[in-house]
Amino acid sequence: LRTAPPIVAPQHGATSPVPLYRPPAAGRPSSTAAIVLARSCGHCEVLTEQCRYTFDRLVSRHSHSGPTESLSPAGLFAACGGCAELVASMQPQLAARAGYVVDTARDPATVPMRWRGTRWVLLGHDGWLTELRQDAQSA
User: CA 102, CA 122: separation in Å to the nearest integer?
Assistant: First the structure.
C-alpha cells in the first residue's frame, strides 16, 4: 500500500492553495459524465434551498455550448432538476459571479465556482476540484 504524503500546513502569507493529495489513477473513466459523477459523488453541486441533493442533470458552465460530451469536466457540473432550473433562470451577471456560467473565451478551470453553496473551488480538467481560501473572490 502507498501512503499519502504528510499534510503540511500552508505558510503564513501563502498565495496558492495547498494541492490535495491525489492517489495514482487506476485508469481514467471512459466519459466526461462519469468523471463529473465521481467528483460529485452522485449529488448536486449547487445546493440551493429547493435542492433534492441528486445528480439529475449535467449542466454546462458555458452559455450557448454544444453537446456536453465534448466538454471538459471543468466546464460541467452536476445538478438536481430544481437547482438546474434555478441556475438557468438566474440573471446572467449573478450566474457568472457564482461561477455557474463562464464566458466561452475563458478557461473554466481558472474560474472559481460556488460549490454546494458553501465554498469556492476550481473545477479541474482532470475532474478534481481544488478548494480556494475563504476570502477568494467571486468569478
Answer: 12
Residue 33 has a pLDDT of 94
Rounded Cα–Cα distance for residues 100 and 46 (Å): 9
The C-alpha atoms of residue 62 and residue 106 are separated, in whole angstroms, by: 9
Within 10 angstroms of residue 7's Cβ, the number of other Cβ atoms is 8
Instruction: Quick: pLDDT tens for 71-96.
Output: 899 999 999 999 999 999 999 999 99
Burial of 33 from C-beta contacts in 10 A (0-12 / 13-18 / 19+): middle
Flag whether pLDDT at 66 surpasses 70: no
Cα 80 from Cα 57, distance rounded (Å)? 6
Outline where DSSP puts E strands in the chain. Answer: 57-60, 76-79, 113-115, 119-123, 129-131
Q: Judge whether residue 106 has pLDDT over 80.
A: yes
C-alpha cell at 96: 457568472
Q: What is the mean pLDDT of residues 88-116?
A: 95
- Quote the CA–CA distance of 123 and 132 in Å, as a whole number: 11
Backbone angles phi, psi at 112, to 5 degrees: -60, 145
